């Protein structure tokens, strides 16, 4: 019989299909003698059915008439070899993927044998077999629509009680093989995007709903793995660990984009499940407490990694309730997210790995032996006194305080992480305006928009408030909406916030942010690139926070600029004076582009990339010309930033080239007047320089 299989015959003919099926039906058991024939017959049948679907419908008619699907199942049951299972799954995948005829697709899916194959007990210890099985399931999902999906489910009283395709697939959602995970996710998206209401209700019922919690649990493990890579790179920088970080970051972001795709299907219950699981399995127990604690549930994760992950979630997972709940959580103290047995606070901890101690001054924290004011000394001369709000026990500090403390006292990575978090919050469209106002980063245009809307609808006749400065948000609306999210935190998640900051004026919060940013520029241990990011954020806030940016802020920027100018003049007498002007012009353009960019960095992963970037100071003697060149470039970058910030703070547009006169000589606008500076013009006896000519005004 088997020799006749190889006789010369028209390969793509109905006779060939008839012959193959006849011979296949004669097989009672698959053994070594006929195994190769069965494999070749299965492969050839898939080719002929695909060919017939495009050229002659009689092929598929004969396929249905002879009930070949039943023969496939019978062959699978009488064979004990993996090779037959592999070929059968491949045959089914090829046919389902390539069939175009609606009638053929309906027959393949509306058949009890398809669910038998889906639920068959294959030996998945064989990785190749598992791969073919998942491909088979994915091929079926690619043909789903509102009509075909009903053929694969069993219903009772109009409710889905069985959906083997989905149930079997999600069992492999956390498989070690990334290709299998990707295929399973593609299958689930195909199911969700069909939009069948009964199926949507099925996927959120127990035990199917466990898929979403397992998804976040798997994601949590990836986050912990990333943190381990970051910690290792900080200790031993090298290209291998950096490559591993990039790969881990890519996978984390891919997972979040998948979650975003799931949400885009518009299944409300799925969105709520994902929100609850992200909050309860990831953000509350791991990410938020890590901003203060060294250990949470015996899991180590650093503050910078936590802030990166929060940024990713806010930027990628577009859920309004999730974004506002995260923002509201920043007004809670870290211990609100930790059970009593896990609370081991010994003061505020801005730097993991360095225990901090509470000093006599409650507004001071100690990092690496150096004391830093939580709110810098600038606050003392401000009309608003932050110490009146913040002067509470250190344990009462909120997570929002932690973000600002990292900026004023953290290391370079912590500063960059906190700046990224504030920037992300500023750019998150899902955040309510009241939440941005509470955080101190609400753009003035959004304040005016809401005030104008309230004026039109006649709420409390607030037209006059709109046409005023708009420096503070409407107190009642601010309190009501923020309190709503805080109340939800308490009732739904058991997180209680008793912070005094909840009742603080938004203008105080804006001042805090500006104060921390201005203080940042005085820190010599922070890289210029990170300072540029801080400059970008300050520039965004200066557009909308004129009142909170006061005279002392301007004076500090001016003093920092003068000091940096002196350092730059020293470099002019140093090793690279001939390159100084060229570097200055180049860095001016680069800084201007960075300051005027839509966001400070294109990708969040950039915060981890400099970790293995060595400095010449670490490997070469201090007198080396390379060290001198690196130092000169750093001085130029800081000088350019401070120069541009001064120009902008005075209300001027940034020129394309570095100006030839200092910022203090540039005419100020109303912002300088609001800050208390003299804008009346030159006085008698004032000395001016017109080009190279020195002049004095004598009246």
Write a structural description.
Helices cover 59% and strands 3% of the residues. The chain is built from 31 helices and 6 strands. The strands form 3 sheets. The protein has a two-stranded antiparallel sheet with strand order 1-2. Helix 13 packs antiparallel against helix 14 and helix 21 crosses helix 24. It is elongated and about 95 Å long. The relative contact order is 0.05.
Class by SSE composition: mainly alpha
Content of β-strand: under 5%
| Principal-axis shape | elongated
Rg from alpha-carbon coordinates: 33 Å
Instruction: Give the % helix.
Output: 55-70%
If strands are numbered along the chain, what order do they take across the biggest sheet? 1-2
Helix run count: 31
Distance between the termini: 120 Å
Please count the beta strands (DSSP E, at least 2 residues each): 6
- Mean residue pLDDT: 80
Main β sheet profile: 2 strands, antiparallel
* Low-pLDDT windows of residues: 1-5, 293-297, 340-395, 460-478, 667-677
Provide the fold topology.
Blueprint: H1 2-5, H2 14-25, H3 35-55, H4 58-65, H5 68-78, H6 82-98, H7 102-109, H8 112-119, H9 127-141, E1 154-156, E2 159-162, H10 164-170, H11 178-192, H12 197-203, H13 210-235, H14 239-264, H15 268-287, H16 303-316, H17 320-329, E3 364-367, E4 370-373, H18 387-390, H19 399-409, H20 412-427, H21 433-439, H22 444-457, H23 463-467, H24 475-493, H25 506-520, H26 528-542, H27 551-572, H28 577-596, H29 616-619, H30 625-649, H31 670-674, E5 687-690, E6 693-696
Antiparallel strand pairs: 1-2, 3-4, 5-6
Pfam families: FPL
Protein name: FPL domain-containing protein
InterPro entries: ARM-type_fold, CLEC16A/TT9, CLEC16A/TT9_N
């Amino acid at each position: 019989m088997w020799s006749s299989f190889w006789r010369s015959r028209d390969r793509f003919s109905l006779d060939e299909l008839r012959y193959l099926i006849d011979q296949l039906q004669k097989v009672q058991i698959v053994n070594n003698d006929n195994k190769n024939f069965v494999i070749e017959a299965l492969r050839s049948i898939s080719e002929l059915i695909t060919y017939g679907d495009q050229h002659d419908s009689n092929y598929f008619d004969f396929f249905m008439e002879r009930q070949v699907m039943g023969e496939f199942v019978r062959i699978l049951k009488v064979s004990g070899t993996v090779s037959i299972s592999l070929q059968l799954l491949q045959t089914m995948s090829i046919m389902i993927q390539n069939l175009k005829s609606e009638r053929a697709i309906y027959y393949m899916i509306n058949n009890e044998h398809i669910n038998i194959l889906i639920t068959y007990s294959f030996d998945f210890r064989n990785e190749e077999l598992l791969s073919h099985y998942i491909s088979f399931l994915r091929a079926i999902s690619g043909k789903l629509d509102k009509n075909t999906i009903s053929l694969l489910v069993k219903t009772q009283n109009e409710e889905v009680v069985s959906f083997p395709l989905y149930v079997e697939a999600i069992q492999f959602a956390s498989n070690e093989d990334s290709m299998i995970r990707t295929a399973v996710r593609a299958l689930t998206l195909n199911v969700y995007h069909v939009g069948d209401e009964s199926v949507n209700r099925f996927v959120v019922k127990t035990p199917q709903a466990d898929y979403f919690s397992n998804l976040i649990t798997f994601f949590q493990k990836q986050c912990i793995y990333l943190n381990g890579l970051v910690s290792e790179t900080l200790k031993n920088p090298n290209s291998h660990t950096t490559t591993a970080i990039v790969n881990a970051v890519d996978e984390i972001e891919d997972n979040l984009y998948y979650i975003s795709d799931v949400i885009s299907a518009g299944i409300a219950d799925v969105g709520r499940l994902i929100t609850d699981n992200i909050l309860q399995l990831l953000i509350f127990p791991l990410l938020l407490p890590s901003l203060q604690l060294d250990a949470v549930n015996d899991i180590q994760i650093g503050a910078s990694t936590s802030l990166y992950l929060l940024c990713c979630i806010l930027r990628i997972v577009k859920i309004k309730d999730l974004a506002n709940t995260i923002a509201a959580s920043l007004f809670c103290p870290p211990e609100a997210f930790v059970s009593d047995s896990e609370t081991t606070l010994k003061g505020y901890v801005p730097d993991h790995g360095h225990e901090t101690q509470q000093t006599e001054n409650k507004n001071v924290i100690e990092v690496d032996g150096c004391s830093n004011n939580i709110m810098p000394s600038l606050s003392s001369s401000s009309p608003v006194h932050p110490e009146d709000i913040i002067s509470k026990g250190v344990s009462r500090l909120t997570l929002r305080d932690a973000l600002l403390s990292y900026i004023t006292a953290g290391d370079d990575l912590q500063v960059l992480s906190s700046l990224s978090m504030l920037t992300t919050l500023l750019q998150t469209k899902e955040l309510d305006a009241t939440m941005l106002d509470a955080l101190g980063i609400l753009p003035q245009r959004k304040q005016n928009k809401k005030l104008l809307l309230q004026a039109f609808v006649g709420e409390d006749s607030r037209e006059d408030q709109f046409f005023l400065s708009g420096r503070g948000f409407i107190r009642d609306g601010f309190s009501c909406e923020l309190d709503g999210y805080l109340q939800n935190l308490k009732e739904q998640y058991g997180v209680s916030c008793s912070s005094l900051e909840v009742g603080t004026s938004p203008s105080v919060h804006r001042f805090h942010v500006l104060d921390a940013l201005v203080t940042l520029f005085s820190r010599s241990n922070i890289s210029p690139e990170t300072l540029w990011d801080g400059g970008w954020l300050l520039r965004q806030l200066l557009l909308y926070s004129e009142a909170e940016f006061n005279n002392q802020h301007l004076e500090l920027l001016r003093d920092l600029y003068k000091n940096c100018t002196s350092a730059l003049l020293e470099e002019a007498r140093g090793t690279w004076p001939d390159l100084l002007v060229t570097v200055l012009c180049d860095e001016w353009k680069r800084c201007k582009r960075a300051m005027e960019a839509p966001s400070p960095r294109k990708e969040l992963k950039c915060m981890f990339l400099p970790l293995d970037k060595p400095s010449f100071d670490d490997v070469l003697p201090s007198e080396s010309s390379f060290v001198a060149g690196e130092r000169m470039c750093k001085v130029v970058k800081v000088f350019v930033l401070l120069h541009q910030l001064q120009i902008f703070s005075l209300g001027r547009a940034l020129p394309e080239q570095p100006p030839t006169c200092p910022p203090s000589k540039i005419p100020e606008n109303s912002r300088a007047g609001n800050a208390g500076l003299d804008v009346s013009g030159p006085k008698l006896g004032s000395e001016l320089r017109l080009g190279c000519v020195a002049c004095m005004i004598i009246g």
